[in-house]
Amino acid sequence: MWDCKEISSFAMLSRRIGAGGEDFEVLTTGEVACEPWELEPLLRPLTESEYNAVARDFLGDQFIYGSIVHEVQRRGFDNDSDDDGQDDVKHSEDFTLYAEDHVAVRTACFARSRRFSRNEEWCFLEHFRPRSVAPASPYTTTGSSDSSTSSVNVDDPTGFTIVMTSMPESELTAGKMKKERVTQLHGITATYLVEPLAQTVGCRGPRVRVSFHATFTATKNMPEGYADSQTSSTNHHSCTMTALKIVVSGAAGQIAYSLLPLICIGHIFGPNQRVELRLLDIEPAQEALEGVKMELQDCAFNLVDAIVPTADLETAFKDVDVAILVGGFPRKQGMQRKDLIEKNVAIFKAQGAAIDKFASRDVKVLVVANPANTNCLTAMENAPSIPRRNFSALTRLDHERLRSFLVEKVNATQSTKVTSKDVNKVVIWGNHSSTQVPDVTNAEVKGQPLDKIVSDKDWVEKKLVKDVQERGAAIIKARKLSSAMSAAAAIGAHLRDWFNGSKDGEFVSMAICSDGNKYGVPEGLIYSFPVKCTGNGAYEVVNGLPISPRIDAMMKATAQELTEEKADAVEILTRQ
Q1: Total structural domains in the chain?
Q2: Domain range for 415
Q3: pLDDT digit string (tens) for 334-344?
Q4: Where are the extended beta strands (E) located within 116-207?
Q5: Which secondary-structure segment (H or E) carries 513?
Q6: Is residue 152 domain-resident?
Q7: Is there a smaller number of Cβ atoms within 10 Å at the N or the C end of the chain?
Q8: Model confidence over 521-537: pLDDT tens digits?
Q9: Would you give the distance in Å from CA 3 to the centre of its chain?
Q10: Beta strand 448-449 with 444-445: parallel, antiparallel or unpaired?
Q11: Gap between the Cα atoms of 241 and 225, Å rounded
């Protein structure tokens, strides 16, 4: 069964293939406004510097280095005909090379990520051919009056193909990343087809169709990580990914109790992503934690490699790829905000230091325990070797509450019923507290602006905002316990988008480091912004949204609260 996804003007299909579902196939097609020759240097850079520049633009930090090892020589070939009257073509049992073909051996080294346990390199043969160079016969008879058998002029922009195939193990080339390379990727074949489209009425300028097809075939000689999953595919739902190491703090608590099954069934990181769980909690909770472990074992989840309950920070954070920090000191009756911050600063200072010392350098950290923004800031400041972009705090629960209230309002006032999937482009700005800023200025319902559907401005600006800000307190009053099930669902949505990408054309709310923002928020805070997630832990703030004077004043108020919380945390840290 194919999984479908729309990315800009491209449609992407993917599926698992093979007898045991251990192989992958991807097919992507779309249109680009350009000439074929304009795409060629992007898909087939001719120099090593161009190759690396293009790859880094596309892949960012995932790409380490690429080498053009050498070009396949075609001795005796030029653009002139030989004396025997034949075209400049070489024919063999394997393939035919025309004079316009370009064949090279390249390497591409990829950084350790959730898919790869270590830096890994692909060594492949690249075969470029203009589509005009493919006559029915590779030979032209001397003196023939039928010119249809001769090569078409390659200057005619008729498109091209690029085929990339993994080199056999016996012919692997290490390239320039030999010291960094630990494993090699095998069994990958990929093809680009670029072809011009006919001009149509209303179409301005040339357009091309770009098609991409790739298959990944698991073999007996797969790199470390893939090989392990291949040999145990019956126990891991035929998954070929390296296990993701995940630590959940407060793992004996209610939120974790709802969250852990979502991780284990693949709802968050993918239906084929194996996981290794580290369940962290304080010493008095270890007996309860053993009970959680037993329940997880009794569920017999296919994707779980290991479950490790612990109170030790090194055991919990060693080489982890994802840290979900749910556990914190709860607010008790009579506690002031500064008292709560002081109790939690010690916890998140220690956990931040443990992340810095033991975790993967690419670890993604999500802080849930309140005060979430300032707890996240404390952990981040105590993990200086981890990129600040890798830390975030949960405001997705507030984001989903806002969408839910809008669904309820629309369904109460409109004949056409909607669901939460019909509501997007809402924003939560600032702190996860009563000063948070629910903003529906850009909200859409089924693609229509919200103000075209909900005309009650007083409800939007007053009751809606208050209901979202006070929802957590309302749940505690009714349930006598804080949100757990909904918090777990929000954690899942936050991480799923962060790792796999948010839906095209939509944005979500994440509390992230405010460094470099364009909304005038002071730098050095953990502040909730609208973001678009592009996958693999990458995201970008959605800039240029209109900010009304009312929203601007609220944004400044929540920023002031965060600034005060930061000052309290810094003052406490200097005393510890």
Answers
A1: 3
A2: 396-575
A3: 777 788 999 99
A4: 120-130, 160-166, 183-185, 188-196
A5: strand 508-513
A6: no
A7: N
A8: 999 999 999 999 988 88
A9: 16
A10: antiparallel
A11: 7
Alpha-carbon distance 159 to 417, whole Å?
Answer: 47
Give the pair of three-digit tokens for residue 330.
């709860």
- The closest of 80, 42, 20 to 160, measured between CA atoms, is 42
Cα(28)–Cα(127) distance, integer angstroms = 20
The residues annotated with a catalytic role in the active site are 432
> pTM of the predicted model, to two decimals?
0.64
Domain containing 348 — which CATH number?
A: 3.40.50.720
Is beta strand 244-249 parallel, antiparallel or unpaired with respect to 275-280?
parallel
Do residues 276 and 283 lie in contact, with contact meaning Cβ atoms separated by under 8 Å?
Answer: no
Q: Which of 224, 213, 212, 288 is nearest to 256 (CA)?
A: 288
User: Residue 514 — φ and ψ, nearest 5°?
Assistant: -80, 0
Q: 275 in a domain, yes or no?
A: yes
Q: What are the Cα distances from residue 48, in Å, to 27, 36, 65, 107, 184?
A: 27, 22, 10, 10, 20
CA–CA dist 127, 338 (Å, integer): 64
Is residue 141, in this structure, part of any structural domain at all?
no
Tokens of 266: 């693949």
Q: Which of 301, 373, 300 is nearest to 340 (CA)?
A: 373
40 and 124 in a single domain? The answer is yes
Strand ranges inside 1-142, DSSP E: 3-7, 10-17, 23-32, 63-71, 89-91, 96-98, 102-110, 120-130
Give domain status of residue 513, yes or no.
yes
Extract the tokens encoding 290: 């053993």
Please tell me what DSSP assigns to residue 422: G
Supply the DSSP symbol for 574: H
Local structure of residue 28 (DSSP, 8 states)? E
Q: Is residue 165 helix, strand or coil?
A: strand
Q: Considering 390, 406, 424, which residue would you say is the last residue of a domain?
A: 390
Q: HEC states along 430-484?
A: ECCCCCCEEECCCCEECCEEHHHCCCCHHHHHHHHHHHHHCHHHHHHHHHCCCCC
pLDDT mean over 476-488? 94
Whether 275 and 380 share a structural domain? yes
pLDDT at residue number 203: 65
The CA R_g of the chain, rounded to the nearest whole Å, is 28
Q: Do 377 and 419 belong to one domain?
A: no
